[in-house]
Amino acid sequence: MGYGLFVPEFRAAFSMSSSEVGAIASLGFIGFFLALLTAEALLVRRGPEAPVLLGLIAATAGMAAVALAGNLPVLALGVFLTSSSAGFAWTPFNDAVHRRIWDEDRPTALSKISTGTGVGVMAAGIAAFGMATWGVSWRVCWMFFACASGAALLGNWWALRDVEKDPDGLPPQAWHHLRHRAVVPLLVIGFAYGTTSAVYISFVADPVRDAGGAFGIPAAAMPPVVFIAYGLCGLFGLLTGRVRAAVGLAWLLRLMMAAAAVSAVLLAMAPGHWGAIVVSAGLQGLHVMMVSAVLAFWSERLFPTLPSLSFTAALLAMAAGSVIGPALAGVVADAFGVQALFLGLAVLPASIAVLLRDRHAQECPARSHTGERL
């Protein structure tokens, strides 16, 4: 997300085309994809502490590399390492929550973990706003991010030092147990969510900056304002469990996919209207934080004996969409323009919202291919 926030600065510093912007974003999500697989192996052997700390080491090193980058390859390496950190750190928390938190409290706990991203996005937006307003270099901002990551490394080391690995480990052929039709909607939602969110955060800054300044704020400082709105509205992800309880999982997913579609349409049709742009960012932030929370507790409900593995499967689908989406989006933006890009982007979540049926959003434990409950 920080990469997308600073795309205008990266374009200027490294003479990047839209295709290069999309390619580096996709490279970052390849790091996320590979780290997810590595994290699952580490989790089984060492418990949640090892992959989380490795992820934060990668984040710290990657952000420092971006801050010091003198050319495009070093920038790409920094983005790759930084994006991989989420792959290392995210799923182990599902495992820790499953073993340390009571069943009725897990959706709330997982929503809090996922929604923490919103706080980080707001902080990054505030730092970028200060950069644009006070003339601070983007390199200083990224070094600040690296220091914050180092602090998070120490905090998570302290928090997770007593959380041991699961004594039972994974059952033999654990991945085979996920071969159940109940997992298909989860993977489809994950793929659509990953594609939509990755494209949006990778390409939103340019049209926002091109729209010019507003509210007495210069144009260069407007992308941070959008990311602050994105993170602030994302904090409503804390209510995901309550909304699910009130309207049901199927309607929650329909509403969030519709929010993503409207967000993209607003950005395409009213790029110079600041009210529409802020609403677009808010809807996208709400979509990202709520759906990430849904993927966490939905996967855990479907496969209660494989909480981290099932969540890893959902995030791999998300990562696949995040790899494919920005790379294709960069080509589309160069060929047809940003407006066509965001209109096309809206089709994917809108289709999911229309086609989703109540039976697709079941939360009961899935059964193995033999018919036995896992």
Summarize the structure.
With 374 residues, the protein is mainly α.
Report on the structure:
The protein has about 375 residues and is mostly helical. The protein has a single domain (about 1-160, about 175-355), classed as MFS general substrate transporter like domains (Growth Hormone, Chain: A, Up-down Bundle), CATH 1.20.1250.20. The protein is about 75% helix and about 0% strand. It has helices at about 1-5, 5-15, 20-45, 50-70, 70-100, 105-135, 140-160, 185-205, 205-210, 220-235, 240-245, 250-270, 275-300, 305-335, 340-355. It is globular, with a radius of gyration of 20 Å. The chain starts with a helix and ends in a 19-residue tail after the last helix. The model is unreliable at about 370-374 (pLDDT under 50).
Profile the largest sheet: none
Q: Give, in order, the helices and strands.
A: HHHHHHHHHHHHHHH
The proportion of residues forming helix, as a percent range, comes to over 70%
Compute the gyration radius: what is it?
A: 20 Å
Low-confidence regions = 368-374
* Percent of residues in β-strands: under 5%
| Broad shape | globular
Tell me the name of the CATH homologous superfamily. MFS general substrate transporter like domains
Question: What fold name stands as the CATH topology?
Answer: Growth Hormone, Chain: A
Q: What is the terminal separation in angstroms?
A: 36 Å
How many strands in all?
0
Kindly give the count of domains: 1
CATH top level label: Mainly Alpha
Secondary structure topology:
Elements (H helix, E strand, L loop, with lengths): L1 H4 L1 H8 L3 H29 L2 H20 L3 H29 L5 H29 L3 H23 L22 H21 L1 H6 L11 H13 L5 H8 L1 H21 L4 H29 L4 H30 L1 H18 L19
Helix pairs in contact: 3-4, 3-5, 3-8, 3-14, 4-5, 4-7, 5-6, 5-14, 6-7, 6-10, 6-13, 8-12, 8-13, 8-14, 8-15, 10-13, 11-12, 12-13, 12-15, 13-14, 14-15
